[in-house]
Amino acid sequence: MSKKQQAAELLFSGNTPAEIARKLGMRHSDVMMRLHASVGEGRMRRSDLAFSLPRELRAEIDKAVQETGSVSPTRISRHLQSRGVTAHPFDVRVYFDHRRSQVVLGDMYEMVRGIEVRLHQFLRSVFIQQFGDNWWRGGVPDRIRAECAALREKDPEPAPDSYCYTHLLGLRETLDKSWGVVVQYLPKELASNKRELLDRLLRLNRIRNGVMHPVRGDVFSEEEFEFVHDLERDLQQLKVEAHAAQPEQQQPAVLQVSELQDQFAPTTVVEEPVTEPADAETPAPASDFVPTVEAA
């Protein structure tokens, strides 16, 4: 196994970048070079690097930023140490670099988009399996069909079929109304609690509106980010085995990080590695940092 693969596995096993460097006997910059290469290959997201730090430690870092007014990794590390909290300056720097709004919002968009497209494709596959050529009328509720048909009629460049005009709330309603058909294809964890799944999709839609309409200026909490991350993970299990062939049409790709490496050739180095902890005195830009703990 290559060092790049080892670094990625260690990250997903709950190790911080500094811990990975120690376990692999590598320089911090070399670890980041390999982790960033995995990001470029679609094996992980940039936000995975920030969230590799334990949740409690991230909260302590955010609190220290509020208390000191500083985003210097070394100063924050020393401040935490004075309170009995251990945080390597290198990990603090990685957290600052990958907790910025561009990173978090970019990854949030990817996850929300992926969930919506996956659910869209899953329901279509279930209905084709159950109803064959009559899947549109057999599976999709009347109100949703009428709404989609009206939107397609108004589109100057219409999509291949009306089902392409479903939205997240429409998919949620379709799942609700067709639960008796769909439930047999759901993983046990999702099939056992219909109300919880529907509530999660309703909450996702509220987050989606903020992500897709950035001029609203919505600020997302760490808890909301983790909610979307967990929902994406749970819905990755959605699939229909051996369903009938679907009509040929161009489907939007689901940007799942585990699938991107099949679409693009691996890259060697994608981003500039972060500096060594000796350079950690250089403060991270404060204007773009998104703390997860609100100021008092």
Which structural traits does this protein have?
single chain; 296 residues; mainly alpha; 2 domains; 57% helix; 0% strand
What is the radius of gyration computed over CA atoms, rounded to a whole number of angstroms?
22 Å
The outline comes out as elongated
In angstroms, what separates the terminal alpha carbons? 47 Å
Order of helical and strand elements: HHHHHHHHHHHHHHH
Mean model confidence by pLDDT:
84
What quaternary form is this? single chain
Topology:
Elements (H helix, E strand, L loop, with lengths): L2 H10 L4 H8 L3 H13 L5 H5 L4 H14 L4 H10 L6 H10 L2 H31 L3 H5 L2 H13 L13 H10 L1 H4 L5 H4 L2 H19 L9 H14 L61
Helix pairs in contact: 1-2, 1-3, 2-3, 5-6, 6-7, 8-11, 8-14, 8-15, 11-14
Short description:
About 55% of the residues lie in helices and about 0% in strands.
